[in-house]
Amino acid sequence: MLSYIVRRIAAMIPILLLVSIVIFLFIRILPGDPARLVAGEDASAETVALVRAELGLDQPIVRQYLIYMGKLFQGDFGYSYRSHKPVAELMANRIVPTAQLAFSALIWAALVGIPLGVFSAINRGRWLDRSIMVVSVSGISIPAFWLGILLVQFFCVRWGLLPSGGYGGVKNIVLPSLTLGAHVVATMARFGRNSLLETLRQDYVRTARAKGAREWQVILKHALRNALIPIVTMSAMQLGFMLGGSVVVESVFAWPGVGRLLIASVTERDYPVIQACMLLFSFTFLFINMVTDLMYAIINPQIRLDS
Amino acid sequence: MSKRLIEVKDLSIQFRSERSWVTAVSRVSFHIGAGETVGLVGESGCGKSVSSLAIMGLLPDRRTCRAQGEILYEGRDLFSCDRESMRRIRGNRISMIFQEPMTCLNPVVPVGKQIAEAIRLHNRPDRREIDARVVSLLAMVGIPDPKGAAKRYPFELSGGMRQRVMIAMVMSCSPQLLIADEPTTALDVTIQAQILDLIRGMKEKSGAATLMITHDLGVIADICERVIIMYAGQVVEEAEKFELFDHPAHPYTAALLKSIPSLSNKGKKLYSIRGSVPSPGSIEKGCVFAPRCSLAKPRCLAERPELRDIAGGHLCRCWEVD
Amino acid sequence: MEISSAAKRKNARERIDSPLRRILRKVASNPTGVASLAFILFLILCVAFPGLIAPFDLAAPDYDHTLEGPGLAHLFGTDEYGRDIFSRVIHGAKYTLQIGLISVFAGAFVGTVLGVTAGYYGGLYETVVMRACDVLLAFPGMLLAIGIIALIGTGTWNVVIAVAVYTVPIFTRIIRGNTIELKNLVYVEAARAIGLKDRWIILRHILPGTFSVAIVYITMRIGSAILTGAALSFVGFGAQPPTPEWGTMLSSGRNYVVTAPHVALFPGIAIFLTCLAFNLLGDCLRDALDSKIAE
Description:
The complex is a heterotrimer.
Chain A: H1 2-29, H2 34-39, H3 45-55, H4 61-73, H5 87-122, H6 127-141, H7 144-158, H8 170-200, H9 203-211, H10 215-253, H11 258-267, H12 271-299, H13 301-305
Helix pairs in contact in A: 1-12, 5-6, 5-8, 5-10, 5-12, 6-8, 7-8, 7-10, 8-10, 9-10, 10-11, 10-12, 11-12
Chain B: E1 4-17, E2 20-33, E3 37-41, H1 48-56, E4 65-73, E5 76-77, H2 83-89, E6 94-97, H3 111-122, H4 127-140, H5 146-150, H6 159-171, E7 177-181, H7 189-206, E8 209-214, H8 217-223, E9 226-231, E10 234-240, H9 241-246, H10 251-259, H11 298-302, E11 308-311, E12 314-316
Parallel strand pairs in B: 3-8, 3-9, 6-7, 7-8
Antiparallel strand pairs in B: 1-2, 1-4, 4-5, 9-10, 10-12, 11-12
Helix pairs in contact in B: 3-4, 3-6, 4-6, 6-7
Chain C: H1 5-16, H2 19-28, H3 31-48, H4 50-53, H5 85-121, H6 123-136, H7 141-152, H8 156-183, H9 186-193, H10 198-234, H11 246-253, H12 262-294
Helix pairs in contact in C: 2-12, 3-5, 3-12, 5-6, 5-8, 5-10, 5-12, 6-8, 7-8, 8-10, 10-11, 10-12, 11-12
């Protein structure tokens, strides 16, 4: 088991390196001269040359990469083209809001979505199943940003119950979390239903019934126990995808997270910030995927014991 | 006449297929006496497994599967039993083991716990008693190191071992009837013999009746006392084992026996029955076997023959036999 | 021998039916499938003949009637310039279908080619392709799309490219796995044994086998492509105003949530219904394919 963990972590390292290389090359692929971008449109040739030397852009590319990686490890993500502030500082207090948003959405989506999927599967073909599935397919078809606007319209404009944006208290996180989680609830309900239906088809469920187990025991102790394995790992993966979705939701609700920073920096062509955000997101995503794999290995005895 | 444990009367089962209902079993009747070992023989799709699921009350729900007739267990019709009564009989008085030992056990629960569950569903002994009983059951079915084996997960055991665990589980409540649906088909030949010996030993020790479902006549010859032959959802012949092998009456049975390759037929072409098994519901009139039968006459294609007693308990469904 | 007449008819029908016909029939028998298909056909009409369906010109402002709610004259109301929202929504269908269909089909095509060749030929080529996919898949789809937009700029076609690019590795992985399975099947071994050329084997044996998997994934991705595309437009990376792309319309409509909520409502409904139609159709197709496999 320990060897599996080590191997899995080791497998992630080459990808991390590749991703860092790709992101590093990002600026270099762009048309135009990065040094000029920093120096400004009307800077003189000498200023641009000075800036270039300062940024280390006159060095061979491999050396540049190594310097870049070295700085990363020290927490130096470069300086924003716009504000000339250290990127790390810009990102620092935005990580927590994004994390809060993503986690809260995941929790409520899992708590609601998985039971919905289970009830759907148990009542297969009947009214409850059909209605849950209708709601689910709508949930995955609805654009998150539109849902956010609708929610704002009802809960803020009409009923005045919740704030339309901003960050601060529990009231602020309700609507963004609902919006971000909507798609995930629907996905989990569908997936949970399929997973459980698949499990109920298995031979060992028939064995449980043949033993004389009560139906609720068959579903809980035999079917669900197995169906939950892929469901739990799938939920962890959803967390990763919500990182992407959070970008849009943060826009709708003026939520001060990393996503909003990314969008602003793309609009302003603030490349160091874009690079740092992409790096952060991808590393987080890869990390979540790795944790998901490890979790799966722990829950599934076949992998846990079979080293 | 010994007490009849199970009496199946005019059992018919239909399955839903797209727009219509397809008949899988058509007016099947047979009985199993207490302590008797009966073999149910037929090719895949002849309805033998489905009939046994009906006895266990494990047919799919009414939307996809309909059943008519009676299944009397000690005089009570199982079809009219409520769910809780049926549940108390299942696994307790009537037990069943299935064909695929590789997938029949819950992969995330240790095997000892699964056997313990079988015991706990129908009894209320305390924890230590159950544990002891599990270990003794595992030992009884010939699993080495039963204490250690109880903690193992199914994937850590071979196919033969898993089938032994299934047998242990099934015998844990000392059932009166054991239904074995092709228990050895998925196993290696050498293991097959071991498992059959095990089943024979178990049934002799416990005095349970056994319904052995198989397509392998060798297994029948080995273990059974009476044999029922099914074809395309109907019983076509029923007889005591030796009577059947010595004097097969129905053309299908005769053909089956002829198909068994034998070492003494060296150099001769292997015999096979021409044609193929009809799809369910495709033959509406006449004898189901007629299209493939070498003795078929016009009457056979027009009227379905009845199951008749041709010689002291030897039943046959054929116009050409008397 | 008396085979029932019903069975005879069934046999005859099976001979005439191609698998495609059977699938189409299954979809046709499902009311949600038919409704979705009808809606999608209507959208295609909107793309082909927007002028016929839209009552007003999409760009003509009418400053006397700005921000009017839905009514008889303007079905969906008017926006801040007095333009008819219904007409703009009809014209906007083009961009949504562009993003949804072109990007996914392009991504699926490239992904399938890469996947089949990587799975079949293996070796260094496969390793390189799979590592590249790993890198691309290290980003959640939306973020990869944003990164690409940062690289190539904004605009509808750039959104199409961005969505297509993040679709490619998804298909490459799936199809490669499928190809490896198929490659090991006995009939492929047999084909190689009798000396068939690789290209022939791929085209005639492997590609058709990946077809059903590809179709399933395509149906699953169209909906999410539409949503991602609309989201990118919403944050300003797609079509710019005054282009009547639905996401862009929602973005400008957002400013009027309090005073004129209808401006943001209808483009949103359009995106929702389009996505719903494709998802339902996809579900329907998948059920039809599944039961064909189950048969």
